[in-house]
Design brief:
The protein is α/β, with parallel strands linked by helices and 140 residues long. It has a single domain, classed as 3-Layer(aba) Sandwich (Rossmann fold), CATH 3.40.50.1380. The protein contains seven helices and five strands; from the N terminus they run βααβαβαβαβαα. Helix 4 runs parallel beside helix 5. Pfam families: MGS.
């Protein structure tokens, strides 16, 4: 599974703590992240993370490009709802792409925990079907 981590500045500590708690779940997957978030995750875990640019510099859009190509399976995006973000249009575009492509997105730790536990239980098999069949090829 391809999993992306994104965290706004005031949520980076929360993200790192979350990833530490679920490091054993994430270790068998391809991990991606925006710049600083990925750096901090790698500094505090043994996980390898492919880092993109910082969010405001285009990292959200780089992850969005993978979403648009249906090459991302799960995004954990800890957003700070109490602080305006200068790149809000990029964030909105990324979330819209996830809705279009049917990519699960957690925007807070509670939802991230639910999705991560489902991942640990192997309940993301439906993503394999998405990759196997193109739109319009589903049969009832």
């Amino acid at each position: 599974m391809n999993i992306a981590f994104i965290a706004h500045d005031r949520k980076k500590d929360e993200m790192v703590n979350f990833v530490i708690a679920y490091e054993q779940v994430f270790k068998d997957h391809m991990l991606y992240s925006t710049g600083t978030t990925g750096k901090r995750i790698m500094e505090q875990t043994e996980l390898q993370v492919q880092r993109f640019m910082s969010g405001p510099l285009g990292g959200d859009q780089q992850i969005g490009a993978l979403v648009a190509k249906d090459e991302m399976d799960l995004i954990i995006f800890l957003r700070d709802p109490l602080m305006a973000q200068p790149h809000e249009p990029d964030i909105t575009a990324l979330l819209r792409l996830c809705d279009v492509q049917g990519i699960p997105v957690a925007t807070n730790v509670a939802t991230a925990e639910l999705l991560t536990n489902a991942l640990a239980r192997g309940e993301f098999g439906w993503r394999e079907l998405v990759h196997k069949y193109k739109p319009g090829e589903w049969q009832a």
